[in-house]
Design goal:
The chain contains 5 helices and 2 strands. The chain has 110 residues and is mainly alpha-helical. It has one domain. A two-stranded antiparallel sheet has the order 1-2. It is globular. The N terminus is likely disordered.
Length: 110
C-alpha cells in the first residue's frame, strides 16, 4: 500500500486544483460598469479582465493567483520561492472572485 504523497499535493499535482476553480472555470466573468477596484486583490481582478482581456473564471483566477504570488514572492525573496504555498494562491484567487461577484464583477451562473 502506497502512502499519499504530501509533497506532491502541495506542489500542485493533478488532484490539488481548488474545487471552486474546477467547477467554475468556464463561467464568464465581466466587469460591472462604473465600479472601481478597491485594494490590491480587486485591482488584480480588474487588470485580468480589463487589461488582459481574460473572460473566464479559470483564466481570471489563474492570473490573480500568479499576480499575488509574484507580488508576495518579490517581498519574501527566496523563502517565497519554495513553491509550497502556490496552491493556496489559486484557492485564494477563487475566494477573491467569489467575494467580488456582484460588486466589481459579474460571474455568469452555470
Amino acid at each position: 500500500m502506497r502512502a499519499p504523497s504530501f509533497s506532491r499535493s502541495l506542489a500542485g499535482g493533478p488532484s490539488t486544483g481548488p474545487a471552486l476553480r474546477r467547477v467554475n472555470r468556464d463561467r464568464r466573468v465581466r466587469l460591472i460598469r462604473g465600479r472601481v477596484a478597491d485594494g490590491e486583490e480587486a485591482a488584480a481582478v480588474w487588470c485580468a479582465v480589463h487589461r488582459c482581456g481574460l473572460s473566464t473564471y479559470g483564466e481570471v483566477a489563474g492570473h490573480v493567483a500568479e499576480h499575488l504570488f509574484r507580488h508576495d514572492h518579490s517581498r519574501a525573496g527566496w523563502l517565497g520561492d519554495i513553491g509550497l504555498l502556490y496552491p493556496w494562491y489559486r484557492q485564494h484567487a477563487c475566494q477573491v472572485l467569489e467575494q467580488l461577484d456582484g460588486t466589481l464583477v459579474q460571474i455568469d451562473s452555470v
